[in-house]
Amino acid sequence: MSAQNMKAPHYFVPGPSGWPLFAGVSLLVMMIGASAWVNGESWAPFVNIVGLLGFLVVLYKWFGQAIGESESGLYSKQIDLSFRWSMSWFIFSEVMFFAAFFGALFYARSVSMPWLADLDHKVLWPDFTAHWGNLGPANLVEPFRTMGPFPIPTINTALLLTSGVTLTLSHHALRAGHRTQTSVWLFLTILLGATFMCFQAFEYTEAYQEFNLKLTSGIYGSTFFLLTGFHGFHVTIGAIMLSVVLYRHLKGHFTPDSHFAFEGAAWYWHFVDVVWLGLYVVVYWL
Predict the structure, then answer these.
(1) For position 29, what pLDDT does the model report?
(2) Residues of the chain with pLDDT under 70
(3) Which are the contacts of 242, defined by CB distance < 8 A and separation ≥ 6?
(4) Do 232 and 279 form a contact (C-beta atoms < 8 A)?
(5) Domains within the chain, CATH numbers bracketed
(6) How much is the pLDDT for 3?
(7) Residues 6+ positions from 31 with CB-CB distance below 8 Å
(8) CB-neighbour burial class of residue 192 (10 A; exposed 0-12, middle 13-18, buried 19+)
(9) What are phi and psi of 19, to 5 degrees?
């Protein structure tokens, strides 16, 4: 939301909209395609892409409608407060999302693995050892190498930490009314996020080709790719959000006192940074 109109209604109630229905259908199609894709169905990539494109169209149209309402002066401070609570609850749901994956990793490493290696199970799997990155109790997993913190994960950590600084500098510049500085720092933040994704793509290529580490590489491969992959997905979403914010800033939509779209995207980006720090320590170091 940019400029708040003092004559705006206390609480703006939008008219009936089909975007929530279209969003749900698009997500359903996308998830059907994704679940079939990982199971090797030939038609799945096409269905997944159709669902993704449909969802992107919904986001473009739906958020465009909200931006138009904001720029028309229909949003008051009450709406601003509603947006802030909505973004807070959304980020909380994302916290719970990653907490589930971190919990699965903890259970696999600290509960299941020692249990499978104890004295009672030596009769079934005498060669199984409780080291993280093993080939499973029955050695059914192809041999692979585990991922360490150097060099790419450490470089990516520096990139994300730096992006948090540049984003904060951009926010301070916006609040001070320095439009050029806001744009420069925000662009650097997006560039750092894109560089992070390029390094992660290189890391995945190395994992597959050099380390033979795949999604099917036992519980280690599953948790590694799910945690890092979903985090990379969130970095991509965050970079897209910041790109839209940069475009809107260049269009003159924000003022030093009213720029929630910027703040909401910044909250999300800082959340992604914090998740990576936990992931960097737990996945790559421990």
Answers:
(1) 96
(2) 1-9
(3) 167, 186, 189, 190, 193, 265, 269
(4) no
(5) 1-75 (1.10.287.70), 76-285 (1.20.120.80)
(6) 44
(7) 51
(8) buried
(9) -60, -40
